[in-house]
Amino acid sequence: MEQKRVYKVVLTGGPCGGKTTGQARLCTFFENMGWKVFRVPETATVLLSGGVKFSDLTEEDSEFNFFIT
User: Fold this and answer.
1) Is 0.70 topped by the overall pTM?
2) pLDDT single digits (tens) 7-63
3) How far apart are CA 30 and CA 32, in angstroms?
4) Phi-psi region of 37 (alpha: psi -120 to 50; beta: other; left: phi over 0)
5) What does the DSSP assignment read for 3-66?
């Protein structure tokens, strides 16, 4: 049985840093090489679309506790 490799690429950066654009370009590049590409949306996008409002978190460390639990 042929063993397949899985490569992981993580894009980091601040708001409007080009992460989404870079993700799309990398996806196109590797798909054109014949690779299967799986993409995951930005965490903030997932949380915000799920109803999380960071402005509603009032305690100083509540954002930290939110992400840990």
Assistant:
1) no
2) 999 988 887 889 889 999 999 999 999 999 999 887 777 878 888 777 776 666 555
3) 5
4) beta
5) PPP--------STTSSHHHHHHHHHHHHHHTT--------HHHHHHHTT--GGG--STTHHHHH
Q: Which two three-digit tokens encode residue 1?
A: 């049985």
For residue 12, give the amino acid letter: T
Provide the token pair at 33.
């090489």
Q: Find the Cα–Cα–Cα–Cα dihedral 30, 36, 37, 38, rounded to 10°.
A: 180
